[in-house]
Amino acid sequence: MQSGLAGKIALVTGGSRGIGRASALALAAEGARVCVVGRDSKMLDEVVDRAEGSAVSVAADLSTEDGCGRAYDACVESWGSPDILVNCAGSAGMGPVLDLRRSDIDDALRLKLHGYLTMAQLVAPEMRRRGWGRIVNISGGAGASPTSTNLPTSLANVAVHNLTRALSDELSADGVLVNVVAPGLTCTDRAADLFRAAAEDTGRDVDALIAEAGAEVPAGRAAGPEEVAAVVYFLSSELCSYIHGSAIYMDGGARRSTP
Fold first, then answer.
1. Structure letter (DSSP) for residue 148
2. Which strand (E) or helix (H) includes residue 56?
3. pTM for the full model?
4. Residue 142: exposure state from Cβ atoms within 10 A (0-12, 13-18, ≥19)
5. d(CA 113, CA 63)
6. Which residue, among 53, 58, 4, has the nearest Cα to 25 in the 3D structure?
7. Tell me: the pLDDT tens digits for 21-35?
8. Under a CB-based contact definition with an 8 Å cutoff, are residues 11 and 5 in contact?
9. CB neighbours of 48 closer than 8 A, spacing ≥ 6?
């Protein structure tokens, strides 16, 4: 089966590391022309080098409208208007709910909700005109499994799920498929940073903490970024033709609610 990704133009936000990076490289490997967006120019350059001529990059802050516009314009200038948008930018602070500041919530929503929405608004008109497009939003398992210490993240993820449904309802009839991927525990750089901080606080080994957390997942381990990227690749391709407004949970069975 052919993916149909060869020659397609993909804009991947949050593409300097983790799931975004893995997704950008997976799309480039299938022949897509990729514009990778992030804040760290050096890390972006490494992704471009790995893509071997199939990617360009732009450093931009997607929590602002100007940053979103800069990212879109850079993609258009290099490759053209995107056929595929992968919204992966965004990480939020954590802390006890009673200690949170209003700005902690605002910052999470500004990047993940407003940033995702603005990017979708920028790419949608041309996707509609072509009669083909894919928007894949990355949220996270915290949206369905909030805790007392991850409220900024869980609220942002719930917002992304609602945004995905609204965009899908608006764009499905025009050949644009909009879906959301919700990873659980994944061995990203961000996760490693969190575990490293926990290890320093407790005096324990980082690898042991990660293994312990993975053992609590029904699958018995954490996911790798490339595993999540494989689903992003499918949802971005022509292989995906009748999935609209759906949430794909990649949490190793951790989510307890059904469906």
1. T
2. strand 55-59
3. 0.93
4. buried
5. 9
6. 53
7. 999 999 999 999 999
8. no
9. 36, 55, 56, 57
